[in-house]
Amino acid sequence: MFQSATLKLTGWYLLILMVISILFSVAIYQTTSHEVDVRLTKLQSNLRITGGMAPDPNNLFRTTELGEASSHIVIELIYANVIILVSGGVISFLLARRTLRPIEEAHDAQTRFTSDASHELRTPLAAMKTELEVALRDKDSTKQDLEKILYSNLEEVDKLTGLSEMLLNLSRLDHDKLERTAVDIQDITREVIDLYDEPGGRVVVKTSSHPLVEGNETALTELVSVLIDNALKYSPSGSPVNVTISSSNKQLAFTVKNTGPGIDAEILPHIFDRFYRADNSRTKQDNKGYGLGLSLAKKIVELHNGELSVTSTPGKSTIFKVMLPTIQKSPSKI
Questions:
Q1: Which has the closest alpha carbon to 222: 257, 255, 189?
Q2: What percent of the chain has pLDDT over 70?
Q3: pLDDT of residue 254
């Protein structure tokens, strides 16, 4: 589809270029021919006056010279247009590819997203349908059996709810403008940690400053929640998760570090892709994620003019680092 569109766009570019070139060629031919005619007329008059040139009632000299000059001009313009046609075709093709490349990438990303979303939605729906069909066919089902099926279906509904909310969040971030206020990342981090209520103080927070950032509190809360949840989910049970908050050079650094198998180097560049899950390189526990959390985190950071990076040492640790611009005011003034 895009190959055909590229060729069509190349044709349009080339058509416009050649129409302009031909119009310029006609204008140049007429202007040059007129200038040559005027100069030949003056030359003929001067020769007649100063050199004693015999009168030429039929203007054969001027007509002959003008015809030769016109022929040379036409040939040179044809060569110029051929060169423009060839070089313009190559340039038009390159420009068409460059113009359509972002559209093609967006189309491919949308296609993959739709396919992945459909797959994620189809899996729990298929499980629910199978369990319900079995329950309806089994006439000897007891109350306990039916309750078990209902609880199982309720879990699948919760999965679908979580997935739909995550998809809506991504869509909202793609199209909505975020309302921004002064946000305290430390307060947000403490609230998120309290929600997880991990035993034994598994999440350890270290702060060296108290910076504020200008951003959307709901979105930044989601960002902190995604990173901490990801660190807890992909690390051995009971292992510490270290959160560090610091600032320097008008930048806030929010770092989340967890121990565990880490992420393989070939997988690392893809972990922010939607629906991507690096299960083969991380813990083998039952993780019920959809591969959307880190994609959402990346989008939130980009909307706040920040940077999100990740480093991982297989078999040791994984570190996610967020850099956000800070507000250069004291908390009391805010």
A1: 189
A2: 78
A3: 94
Over residues 281-334, the pLDDT tens digits come to 443 444 445 567 788 888 889 888 899 999 988 878 899 999 999 986 544 433
**Domain topology for 181-327:** Heat Shock Protein 90 (3.30.565)
324 forms beta bridges with 252
Distance, CA of 244 to CA of 230 (rounded, Å): 16
DSSP assignment of 212-272, as one string?
A: EEEE-HHHHHHHHHHHHHHHHHTS-TT--EEEEEEEETTEEEEEEEEESS---TTTGGGTT
Residue 320 confidence (pLDDT): 94
CB-CB contact of 290 with 275 (8 Å): yes
CA 110 to chain centre: 11
Under 8 Å between Cβ of 194 and 148? no
- pLDDT-based confidence at residue 129 (cuts at 50, 70, 90): confident
Question: Domain spans of the chain?
Answer: 2-109, 114-175, 181-327
Helices (H), the chain: 2-50, 60-137, 143-175, 185-196, 217-233, 293-303
